[in-house]
């Protein structure tokens, strides 16, 4: 029996019409026709592949972030905090997301500039159409940098008699008449507190840590006060082995890095424990 089939042409972009081949095959073997038809589709190049082969593949929309009016040394710090910079190649970019990123950009840029001492900066954000996406332009006027007027660093408690701890208190990198930069202040705080705990002052804490900024006057006062608390000390050291004794006491003593019964250097204990851990391995 001869079957009649209506001619059809697949309206797939970049796919060749296979109606004639499909109709002729169905007349010979109806069951084989579908397999042949699918193989023909698999072998046909897609629109994207053809476009790529022609070298005219459509570019993915992206967001370009442009900083204008900003000194070169301030640009990395601003770019690091911009959400637009992190999302500029996102696959979800559209007008709505770009507008949201533009609204955030002003506040983020101002915060980054304040960290570098520019508390009177001005930022204007504009979004422009650009092929194949958008261009976000931040026009920035940094303004004058805030200068430090007064610096006060205080150490209270028994730690005042610790030479290393007291000497470190004099090394705050912020000085009167110098520019206010927050990163060195935060780094000094962390290092000073770490040193206090290494020296045995495990309860050390800051009783005051603040920077008072007067943007209109362009000045700042820096305050940092630490209370060391009482120092901790090592008492007598004993080694206990569970079960059968495998190591002689004199051998264990040879691996002890802290000598004597008392020590205020906490790092000696840490180093000693590390030696035992590596030795057991």
Structure description:
The protein is of the alpha/beta class. The protein is built from 10 helices and 6 strands. It has helices at residues 19-28, 30-43, 47-53, 75-81, 83-86, 95-115, 163-168, 182-198, 249-254, 266-280; strands at 63-68, 122-130, 133-141, 147-156, 205-214, 219-227. It has a 3-stranded mixed β-sheet, covered by helices on one side. A 3-stranded mixed β-sheet has the order 4-6-5, with no helix packed on it. Helix 1 runs antiparallel to helix 2 (30-43) and helix 4 packs across helix 6 (95-115). It is flat and about 80 Å long. Mean pLDDT is 79; it is low at 1-29, 44-52 and 277-281.
Sheet with most strands: 3 strands, mixed
Count all strands and give the number: 6
Based on secondary structure, the structural category is: alpha/beta
Number of helices: 10
**Overall 3D geometry?**
flat
Percent of residues in helical segments? 25-40%
Run of helices and strands? HHHEHHHEEEHHEEHH
Tell me, rounded to a whole number, the average pLDDT.
79
Q: How large a portion of the residues is in β-strands, by DSSP E? A: 15-25%
> Any low-confidence stretches, pLDDT <50, length ≥5?
1-29, 44-52, 277-281
Our measurement of the CA-to-CA distance between the termini, rounded to an integer number of angstroms, reads: 84 Å
Identify the quaternary structure here: single chain
Computed Rg: 36 Å
Q: Could you give the order of strands across the largest sheet?
A: 1-3-2
